[in-house]
Amino acid sequence: MSIKNFFKRSAQSSKKPLVIFGIIVVLLTAQIGWWMYFQIQQNNVLHGLHENVLQIRGRQTLTDINQTYGSLVIQNIRHVFFGNPAIARHVPVEEISRTPAVPPIFLSGHWNSFYVINDLIYYKDFDDKVYRTIVNWDLIQELLGKSESTYLVGPTHDYTSGQFVSGPSSWLILPVDIKVKSDVLGELANRTDRKTAMFVSEGVFFCILLLVGIYLMFLAFRREVLLQSYQKNFILSVTHEFKSPLASLKLYIQTLSSREVPLEKRNNFLTHSLHDVERLEKLVENVLEAARLDRDDYQYVMKPLDISEVAHHSLKKIEDYAHEESVQLDTDIYPSVVIKGDRHAIYSVFDNLIENAVKYSLNPKKISVKLYARQRQAVFEIQDNGVGIEKKEIEWIFQKFYRVGNEMTRNTKGTGIGLFIVKKIVMRHKGDIRVYSGGLNQGTTFTVTFPLYHENKE
Questions:
Q1: What average pLDDT does the segment 114-127 reach?
Q2: 299-457: which CATH topology?
């Protein structure tokens, strides 16, 4: 079964859980998006509120400055003979009629009244004398500094020469504007931007975290579905693998027990029966080996091992079969290649790789087996002219129960655990295994490497 067809059938069989899973993902993503939007909006609202508070505080500060400055003006005029360093000495207006800017209503009454024309402040004291002085900007700035360092003051720009800023009143209204310092507004804007960036980054981080979690969950789900499919295939394959030799054994035994069989034919039956028993034994060994390797607690008997001898032994076991099936077997086994390993495990590696090469080769079958030493490594290389492996499936072939998905392999005996066993054993021996195939019907080459054994390093 190909990966594409597998996922198509898996998606159909698991449609409901995937739909529910997708809805949950959409809801979580929408919740994060709403949280980001809400936090950014709240941050902007707070920014506006802070600006309004600063403006209100500025107006209150200006009122306080007006009252303080007015008190100082009155105090300065009433103590004109003693002088006041806070405000320049006020000048009495002796001939008020010569000051047309001061309206008659100011002269007729309004004791303790102020009148401001441009930068001039006119004040009529209780002695009915009118005084004038120029607005002391340094003093205003000093008063502002004592009350609040957030603001700047300056002359208003909404009047022209001779235009009254304020009418007669019992308190002073200075011709000044007060505004928030630009660096204060800039800091407020920067703080708002930093919070906005923080909310956006947190939202993006949570989205990425959610997507990564979703992806990992999808991979776990896919692995689980794949494993279930592989296990089903394994059960079917093992059933078939057991059934075929058992049926053959049953037929041979029934034939031998029911009638007299010529000696030559009897020996042939016994040979085939022994071959079927060996197949069953090999199958049971592979299943048990896979179970042990899956637990990762199997202890190997590691000692110096001549794998050239192991390779010859594995090749000898298939020579008769190779002769019967007309397999062209080319071997080049370098003598005395020694590694440190477990004899039974290395036998299993060679047997599985050689058996796969014979099993999946196309007629006329050609298999090349090489063993040699290279750069402190033992290299076992086996090449066939078989069905080949597509590139997209190479990464899967070492998974337990997996079988390459094409018609040829479906009609070929196998359980899907041989290469899993090979990979596990090679890794436990600190070796490496690589696969190369040009594609379908282009053959396959397996290259296994082990560290060479050096006695002086042990």
A1: 73
A2: Heat Shock Protein 90 (3.30.565)
